[in-house]
Design goal:
The complex is a heterodimer of chains A (382) and B (326). Chain A has 382 residues and is mostly helical. Helix content of chain A is 55%, strand content 0%. In chain A, helix 4 packs across helix 9 and helix 18 crosses helix 19. Chain B is α+β, with helices and mostly antiparallel strands and 326 residues long. Chain B has a 5-stranded mixed beta sheet with strand order 3-2-1-5-8, with no helix packed on it. Chain B has a 5-stranded mixed beta sheet with strand order 4-10-9-6-7, with helices on one face. Chain B has a two-stranded antiparallel ribbon with strand order 11-12. In chain B, helix 6 crosses helix 9 and helix 7 crosses helix 9. The chains are: A mainly alpha (382), B alpha+beta (326). At the A-B interface, helix 19 of A face loops of B.
Amino acid sequence: MSPLARARLAAAWVLATPGRLALTIAAGAAIAVVAGLLFAWSGIYNIAASRGHLKVIDLLLRFGMENSVRARAPDETLPQQPDEDLIRLGAGHYHAGCAYCHGTPSSPAPPVAARMLPPPPDLKDKVGVWKDGELFWIVKHGLKYAGMPGFPALERDDEIWAMVSFLRRLPELDRDAYRRLALGEVAPERPSGADIVETGGDQEAIGACARCHGNDTVPASRLVPILHGQPAASLERALRDYAAGLRDSGVMQTAAAGLTESAIRKLASHYAALPRPAIPPEPRDAEAVTRGEALARQGDSSRGVPACLSCHDAEASPSYPRLAGQWSRYLERQLTAWRKGLNDRSPTGRIMAPIGRRLTAGQARDLAAYFASLTPAERGRP
Amino acid sequence: MNALRLFTLGAVVLALAGCQQQSALAPAGEDAARVALLSWILFAGAATIFLIVVLALGLAIAGPERARRLLRAEGSVRFWGIAFPTVTLVALLGYGLWLMRDTIASPSAAEVRIEVTGEQFWWRVAYDGPGGRRIAEANEIRVPVGVEVEFVLRTADVIHSFWVPSLGGKLDMIPGRTNRLRLKAERPGIYRGQCAEYCGTAHAQMSFEVVALPRDAFDAWLAAADTPAAPENEAERRGAALFLASGCGACHAVRGTTAEGAIGPDLSRIGERRFLAAASLPNTAENLSRFITDPAAIKPGSLMPPFAIFSADEQQALAAYLASLK
């Protein structure tokens, strides 16, 4: 009997009854599982990252990844007009969170990161491939099998959109433009040979708070809070809570994670003692300020909103932040995060969370306008 | 044996119900007495009818032929099945309406008027103080003995029901409506009340106490509302400062201080209440700290945010200050 005829005969036997068909499929599946286990157990497969993937496997993984991202990404897009505040916030976090693997216009990725499999791409060439929503999805969730991590705070879509804004700007940036965005006022001095020998002479200043928050100047992004003159206790609390993962912020959890207790105390007292630099005046909506003031002073008992100033004026507990003279953009964005149910698990955050959820969008806007219009109380005065 | 046990258990439950402060069977006011009388009449009537039914059943199964014939006669069915229940129920309804006629509607003005507003999950109380001022309190209601008190019942959110079983019947608090209930406490004492309409997660912990005082003691207590307690020692002073600096005053009022919040219960006299958190926790320093640190652990759904920011020392100072408010 010819092989073809035998195969035909076997197929006819299998297809004769549904029971035989099911049995054959089950047997096939069992054989596949056993074969797979044997393959994994034998160690035949070479797991070495140094070997790379077979070309066909590489193509298949890429094809699957691209389709998975496209199927899951949201349709949202960035606003047409580039938002400089968002871009600067994104740049600050890129420098601390992404640059080590993806490199920057001022420093290529180190060889260690470059030998990952797949090697982290130079994003300059890649961001054009994806739509805004797809970039957002990748930054938020990361990519399995590629070593790309998810965002540390999945609740903070606002921070992830800041990253996407920055990524859109990235291809246009040269070395100096990148450093202006990501390092701000921080200009590390050129280290001497001895400096490099002893301390590494880090020119990237990754842990420098002033990159985003300023020191001699106020923050370059109006989405980054002004810390000058805040009570030291509130800054200490914030840093400890970020470091412990009790407060959700991909940006600040990354920045605070490595801080020691003594560094936290020094940092807090440094910013608490800083005189506040002048800030460029913001346009004001007088009516919103008036409405915001009424709410801040009296609260809105019909919605269960207490008076904000009970906790946030100059005489309140130093565990609470002062809001007078803060950026209105930062305040509104932060209140919006609270409104949308930011699940803060820190002791102070658990006080604010239920109150924040009771605010309307209009109230958040009015409050931001009011607090931004205030002059912060000088230190030394009650 | 089983029947005996069941009987004993029932007797114990009834006895306990009788001596508890929250019991419709231990009346301390006219209305509650009427409700109790009506209840006893119902119990006795129901027991009698039950005995008749059991007797008839026994006769129908094992009685002499004459009795069985009598039972299945059409006349018997007409009498016991139609005439007897109709007459009994109509009589009971009429008696009940007549008995309870004074409880709710009364044209004459009551001497003492107390507003009670149900909120998730506590009771906002307001008295007409001397000189027509409103005096805010919460979760504990003081009434003069022997005086008819009109309770003006409202709700701030969902339906609640105001019930002090020892003093009278219950009355719902309905959104958009003002209901009025008159109660009179005949004897000084403390009578427990409870929200009697499911209102949310902490409904079971929405209780209160009615403290019935002799008339002059009540008047003196009301008049004393104007002279709030001032902190006397170092711990109380530190507690007072913490109270204000930590934002407590945004929701809670303490007369005589800048704390004027009206979102949560008034705390001007929290130190003299026997219980905390709408009569769900004994008023001790430890319980105060527990509630402040995590209200939702004690009352799920409580609108108060958890204040887990205080050190043990600060908690003690706060508790000392609150305990001093009398």
